[in-house]
Amino acid sequence: MITQKHIAWAVGLTALLLLPLLIRLMFPDTDRYYLHLVIQILIWAFIYTGWSMMGRFGLTSLGHGAFTGIGAYVTVLLWNFAGITPWIGIPVAMLVATLAGLLVGYPCFRMRITGHYFALLTLAFTEFVRLCIIGLRDWTGGSLGTQPTRYGDGLSFYAVQFEPNRVLAYYIVLAVWLIGLMIWVKVDRSMDRYALDAASQDEDAAASVGINVTREKLKITAVSSAMCAFGGAIYGQYQMYIGPETIAGLGVSLNIVFAVIAGGIWSLMGPTFGAVFTQVLAEGLRVGLRGSETLSKLLGQSALALDTFIYGLLLVLFIIYMPKGVIGTLAERFRQK
Amino acid sequence: MFGFFSSLDCSLDIFFVEALLNGVLLAGLLALLALGLNLVFGVIDVVWICYAELVMIGMYAIFFFVQTVGLPLPLAFLLAIGLVAIAGLLLHYLVIRPVLDQPPINQLLVTGGLLFLLQAAATMAFGIEFRNLGLRLGSMNIGDMSFSWSRIITFAVAIAAVVALWQFLTRTYIGTAIRAISQDRQIMPLMGVDQKKVYLATSAIGGGLAGLAACLMVLQYDIYPQIGLQFGPLTFMICVLGGLGNMVGGFVAAFIIAQFITIGGSCVATEWGYAVAFLFFMLVIFVRPQGLFGAKS
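The joint structure predicted for all components is written out below.
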């Protein structure tokens, strides 16, 4: 039975598969830049999807900046100092992040730390990991960040390095992103999802019908932290640079949460839309505002911060007027008609 | 292998005592920072993630009044306190009030958006350079130890502010109303307390305390747009550690955290002092989610 939904998916997927060709045709000179933008969007979309696994069940974590950081740093450090290929390094990094997630999650869920307290506790965890990264500066390069050692010409299966070939990089991150969506759908259709939904509404009621709330929450935490660690590792392998502010820390955590809120937390494409929205907005504002001569004459040096200013303003307006995110609000309008 | 442990040289010498006492002085500032946030947190049940950014705005305001307008320092201080108090009022009226009925996490995030906005606004107005007023208050020397006067003044003012706030909350009508609302948000409006007014008053006082903290911070620290990120997370941690709305608890928590930072900083490296403080915070909350001195709910 082929439904409209299947056709939409087939069309969308074909378009995505042909995208590099399309970009090459449309922007023959600057295709590397546009591919870079799309790759960034897909990597972050995967990380945002990973966060929304927990976020949609009321577990608003500000700790995912720590998981992306662990993913990126463990992978790169194992490669740089022990020569261990990322094929082993990435699973190890995911394992470390999952363990860290469970270690922070278990007491939280047992002691029923929720809402503000959960957010602030995970915020402390993020700061802790960021400070450890800076403190271990002999290995991590401190606040300056570090780079994975290039293997040959920087294009290697063994070292999982693919940055020079943007088209290849695009297909790799496209596959990663699709896996992320598949995990989302799988969780969405599982019994765990209903259990977690119930627990997020009323923990006592959920426990009284036989749901092991702590175990369910730990399960989703494990999935979510492993996904974010994987996303962080892929980010590091693609960017060939990792820094405590770019892939770890509170800034990353906040960006994740904001993008998902803006996109919409309860729908499959919400986090992805959030990634498109925030990346295009940030990039568009940066290029548009810094490129404009009138603006730079008018504002001088301060034009540099105007994009962040508008970004912050939009976030505030979004949460006040569209708390369900763009996709959620549109879907609601659509249903009402 | 662990390079940072090899540099561990802590002995009970004069420098250790100096670090200990400097920790006490730092605690005064941290306690003052936590005070306003604690009040807002306890009464309105909203976290101002951008609280440290309000302090930053206050610091820039003082810089502007003194350097550009040429006002005397005390007047600039008063104006800055008033300005940040108004900022707190506006923050509540324009941003928090519309989201009061939304899930708590949205209330937290909306002020997070404001954090970006305020940082960018400061960058646009003053640039990313480090600024300072060029004040040198000197230091007090006791034996081989030295303590800067700015820290001593900060400590004294912080203590005075806690006492003054406590007097206000217990002796005045609006203060009593604020305490009542923080104990029961549902019942008090039925008893004839105007919740909206109390919230506005609380926000203004919270802002004013941020302004006061700004006055003391310009004595010690350079002003730059990201300074909030240095103090913001610490401030939340102290509030939660002390037990929300518990001002004495906040003070004790500030002392504990400050000791981790200064002793860790003098024995190993600054970031390890901070890291251990955050770790300690997490461990305490795992065991006592209500904070060290919070009442069990």
